[in-house]
Design brief:
- The chain is α/β, with parallel strands linked by helices.
- The protein has a single domain (8-232), classed as Rossmann fold, CATH 3.40.50.720.
- The protein contains 8 helices and 7 strands, in the order βαβαβαβαβαβαααβ.
- The chain has a 7-stranded parallel beta sheet, sandwiched between helices.
- The termini are far apart.
Length: 243
Amino acid sequence: MGQLDDKVIIITGAGTGIGKGMARAFAKEGASLVLASRNQAHLDETAQEVRGYGARTLVVPTDVTDEQAVIALFAKTMDEFGRVDVLINNSGAFDGGPLDQLSLETWLKVLHVNLTGPFLCSREAMRIMKAQGGGRIINVGSISAQMPRMNSAPYTTTKHGIVGLTKAAALEGRDYNVVVSALHPGNVLTERRSAGGRDADQEPMMTVDELAQVALTMCALPLHVNVLEAIALPTTQKYVGRG
């Protein structure tokens, strides 16, 4: 018996990094998975891996900033599985620079992926979860929601916004058994950071699989228990007092 047997979980940004790590952890615990991101090839790689653990898996290429694409994602999930137990809002974008040099294009790109996407997905999930009697939404935020890095205004602003979206949705979902949480990671050694080199060499990191264990714990809780906000980071990472 797995901790997530009979649970249907949608993961956005599931093709790489944190999303892929969560898919792997959830599959090992018996979940059925709906994998969403813009990159079909990456989704197929994730799907092949998690099916090796016996997970029933649906791949739905999705741009979370596209309202109709998000509506289609949830419609296909309902057609295939008939319910949505957990939504992981994990798709994200990072871009920035000095505030006085930021383009509107950069600002809007990060805003749309990091805030509009979770709003659209949460809206569809809330509709389904209210009707079925409950469910869980986990928004992947960042420690930048509390302690920003330099030159990260778009990213930091959206992660503060994720906290607001989480609390507002948690309040609205409370009477319907819809539980909404935020998981704030510190440094995670994803493919992007590995390719970048600098962060991986100079800063402490945790693996995507280690972070996924935190998400697994949150997903496995009964619906009368909520971890409203969780912070997971390498023990030696500068956080309190950084700046």
